[in-house]
Specification:
With 375 residues, the chain is mainly alpha-helical. The chain has 15 helices and 2 strands.
Length: 375
């Protein structure tokens, strides 16, 4: 909004030439991060008090670790504030003529509404069982399917995206040397799977104070760099061509979206760090996972997201293997799933698990960025 309103005024008068700075994505990324942080820091105390007054507190699963029973009643649905602190800076500082920004916002807000409904049902029933899993999954698939079908099947998309949207990018392999093209419907189905899987993987990771938001911030920061690099050209020098990655100038605007996510996540972490004053709830975890999934698809890093989001993948895989093992053999692989509960029951202190998972996430982000040169 500010970009669209103020940037055209740069040549109206000499004293308005400073508005030329708005053309630069890094400046608008910094502005989005700071705006999101200010909104989160300013509103969080009031928001937490309102949650407490309305008795919107966390319901703990009876089969969960006993150490979590003391967390019952902690204000939840803090993800609503994350979304507010992310959407406002994106609208303010991003180029609203960019379809990638709108499609990413659509999935993020849509998934947030699903999570909001799920959290509301849990609070109303005073139970950890909210929206039925089948209904939740169906809604996720429908939202992602509609958005991604538009991006993959229709012609009203940026030309740079149209050229590469059906080509698969392989991590550690030069994009211009290996050509893998999928049928349109197959790629749409694959992209939907990436978005829905990432959304639910982040949701499963959100089980300890600050455990999910830390890797979300790290992943979003990495996608910020990847989005900017995919469209970076300096004085005729093409960064994508130099690094042998897809050239997507339109995706560069996603760096502003990612910056807003980073800023809102940092602001939330201030109050979500151990011992948490507020939980994000499904309204936050489903939305943030959907945002990460969309950035993976739109920057052509769907397969790299398995490495970058390794913490989320491990958490999800631990649940799947636990369920499959118990149904087939009657035995459990882990003491409890997701895997962070396994370490809790082994005697690891909660802060130790959280920080170690963050460290692993940082390492995976660095390896993911290294893939830009190791090709």
């Amino acid at each position: 909004m500010l970009y669209g309103l103020l940037y055209p005024l740069r040549n109206e008068a000499p004293w308005l030439h400073f508005l030329n700075v708005l053309r630069y994505i890094p400046f608008r990324v910094i502005a989005a991060v700071l705006t999101a942080m200010v909104i989160a820091f300013a509103l969080s105390p009031w928001f937490i008090r309102r949650l407490q007054e309305q008795q919107i507190g966390q319901t703990i699963r009876e089969e969960g670790p006993k150490s979590h029973f003391s967390k019952a009643g902690t204000p939840t649905m803090g993800g609503s504030l994350i979304l507010l602190a992310m959407v406002i800076p994106t609208v303010l500082w991003a180029d609203l003529g960019n379809v990638f920004v709108w499609m990413s916002l659509a999935v993020t807000v849509g998934y947030g509404l699903i999570g909001f409904l799920d959290d509301s049902l849990k609070i109303r029933k005073k139970s950890s069982a909210g929206l039925p899993a089948v209904a939740k999954l169906a809604l996720q698939i429908i939202i992602a399917g509609v958005v991604l079908y538009y991006l993959f099947a229709l012609d009203s998309v940026p030309r740079d995206w149209e050229r590469v949207r059906l080509r698969m990018a392989l991590p550690f392999v030069a994009f211009d040397r290996v050509r893998i093209v999928l049928p349109m419907l197959a790629y749409v189905a694959f992209a939907v799977f990436v978005v829905v899987s990432m959304s639910n993987a982040v949701n499963l990771t959100d089980g300890l104070d600050g455990l999910a938001i830390g890797p979300v911030i790290i992943n979003a920061g990495t996608y910020l760099l990847l989005a900017y690099i995919t469209g970076a050209t300096f004085a005729g020098f093409s960064m994508p061509r130099y690094l042998h990655i897809p050239a997507l100038p339109s995706a560069g605007e996603l760096a502003v979206f990612a910056g807003a996510l980073v800023g809102s996540g940092i602001g939330f972490l201030w109050y979500n760090t151990y011992p948490a004053q507020v939980f994000m709830g499904d309204v936050g975890s489903l939305a943030l996972g959907g945002a990460l999934g969309m950035m993976a698809v739109l920057t052509k890093n769907e397969l790299l997201s398995v490495l970058l989001g390794g913490i989320f993948v491990i958490e999800a895989v631990s649940v799947v293997t636990q369920v499959v093992s118990f149904k087939l053999t009657g035995k459990r692989i882990f003491r409890m799933a997701p895997i962070h509960h396994h370490f809790e029951l082994k005697g690891w202190a909660e802060p130790k698990i959280i920080v170690r998972f963050w460290i692993i996430s940082i390492m995976l982000a660095l390896v993911s960025l290294a893939s830009l040169k190791v090709r």
